[in-house]
Amino acid sequence: MTKPADAPPITRLALYVRDMPKVAEFYSRHFGFIQDHSEMPGLLRLTPPSGGCALALLQASKGHKVGQSCIKLVFDVADIAAFRDESAARGLKFGAIHHCDGYAYANARDPAKNLIQISSRAFKA
Q: Which CATH number fits the domain 10-61, given the four candidates 3.90.950.10, 3.40.30.10, 3.30.565.10, 3.30.720.120?
């Protein structure tokens, strides 16, 4: 299947969270995201230092059921075990490492209960 020439790229994922500074610090500490100091209230934009998809943290209203969205943030990591160990030393505990079709992955949740995954699928030989 070919994609349309004008297919727009995904440039950011929006997460509705209750504690924006806590979630921003989480993604900065564990994945190196840099906070873009926006002047818009209720929005924090985080960009990865190596480029790629940014995260837009939006203030969740009382009506939002946080952590119940059908979303998973996947981070490409060549060495799952090493990254999992380094993350644990910084306070982020991933679950068991699963092996599937020549790659590995492990899951965790951010402070807003969003599912996150580290995956070596992009490095599959």
A: 3.30.720.120
